[in-house]
Design goal:
Elements lengths: L18 E4 L4 E4 L2 E2 H7 L2 H10 L5 H13 L5 H8 L7 H15 L8 H26 L13 H10 L5 H14 L6 H10 L5 H13 L6 H12 L5 H10 L17 H17 L2 H18 L8 H11 L7 H21 L27
Antiparallel strand pairs: 1-2, 2-3
Length: 377
């Protein structure tokens, strides 16, 4: 029988200049630059442009791109009305999926699939995702939707629209770093889904709607939400070691721990851990951080030798929580960041497109004949 790569693990189907991952050593780079340097020195706007064009921008190019993002933050009135009339019980990712699909109906350029059109649509979607997600949250909570401002950074404007008040420079920068860390991560399930849709020469809105559907699944985008559920179950730092030891003894899954690619610390988790500690101490919310710290030590001591370590979801939830973001919106925030990687990967793959058409090993019956309906038992 042919060898089957379950989950397509290890299967190479394309080339990319965007992201490199060495899971054994915990390395992640974009355009060859370590993720730690992007987080320390760059902005989400710059990384988004770098991914779209597969090269570092000049100051002039970045200024132009930033101006385009700011100018495209507003969403059509028809979409605002749709969001306001969505069922309050709808999952935020369902709402986002529907909103993006509807946005495509309103865009006169939506059916264009040239490189120029894909890039132009990508810029608008990167700008508008933040407005859509903030609007969904406000509408579901029965609050008035806050219009975007052009004088704030991408991260700062989102927090302003989300909470109805302008964030501090420190809060805006912290969220900016969180977006940078989630912007792209190679051929993950949602990026692969976007590319698969794109390979049929479908439009950008269909590609991104497909990606949102893939990200919605709890095995992909929902882990950081489950980490917060776990922290609430633990309750206090003095109970954390016993809680995790019991789970490990029962061989139960620990959310935010382990990764399909990384067999060492996820480098993004190391960046977020440092910020989570600073924010927790400053805001007087050290309880969550102390629980995570204890869980991490227990996990590393017990199963670190098996290549199982905390991933980016382990600390991201506490950072989002400290920024006033409720846990049901953690996955939409993931999409807010990953829209850049999705768009960039679709654009890159479409430059040398080939329809994706994998195969499966047939394991069904053979040499059968049709049995009349009345003769079947």
């Amino acid at each position: 029988m042919s060898n089957i790569a379950k989950g397509l693990e290890g299967v190479l189907f394309t080339e990319s200049k965007l992201t490199f991952i060495n899971g054994a050593e915990g390395i992640l780079t974009h355009l060859g630059i370590p993720i730690q340097e992007w987080a320390e020195k760059s902005t989400f706007e710059e990384l988004s442009l770098a991914l779209l064009d597969a090269e570092l921008p000049t100051a002039e190019e970045l200024a132009k791109f930033d101006a385009e993002l700011r100018a495209n933050r507003s969403i059509p009135a028809e979409l605002v009305e749709l969001i306001e009339n969505m069922p309050r019980r709808a999952h935020p990712m369902q709402a986002l999926r529907t909103a993006v699909s509807y946005l495509g109906l309103l865009d006169p350029q939506s059916e264009e699939v040239s490189q120029e059109a894909r890039r132009a649509i990508s810029i608008r979607m990167i700008a508008q995702f933040s407005t859509i997600i903030a609007a969904i949250k406000r509408a579901q909570e029965g609050q008035p939707i806050v219009a975007p401002r052009q004088d704030l950074t991408h991260a700062g404007n989102f927090l302003y629209m989300l909470n109805g008040k302008e964030p501090t420079a420190e809060q805006a920068r912290l969220f900016d770093i969180a977006l940078i860390l989630h912007a792209d991560h190679g051929m993950n399930a949602s990026t692969f889904t976007a590319i698969a849709t794109s390979s049929t020469i479908s439009d950008m809105y269909s590609c991104i709607t497909s990606a949102i559907g893939a990200l919605k699944g709890p095995l992909h985008g929902g882990a950081n939400e489950q980490v917060m559920v776990m922290l609430d179950e633990v309750g206090s730092p003095d109970k954390a070691a016993e809680y995790i030891t019991d789970k490990l003894d029962k061989k139960e899954k620990i959310m935010g721990v382990g990764h399909r690619v990384y067999k060492y610390f996820d480098p993004r988790s190391r960046v977020l851990r440092d910020y989570a500690e600073v924010v927790a101490n400053k805001e007087g919310r050290s309880n969550y951080y102390q629980i995570l710290e204890t869980i991490e030590k227990t996990v590393v001591d017990r199963i670190g030798s098996k290549g199982i370590y905390p991933n980016v979801d382990f600390y991201s939830g506490t950072v989002y929580s400290d920024l006033g973001i409720s846990k049901e919106y953690f996955t939409p925030i993931f999409a807010l960041a990953r829209i850049s990687g999705w768009c960039a990967s679709v654009i890159e793959y479409s430059r040398d497109n080939r329809l994706l058409r994998p195969d499966a090993v047939y394991t069904g019956l053979s040499d059968q004949h049709y049995t009349e309906l009345q003769d079947r038992q």
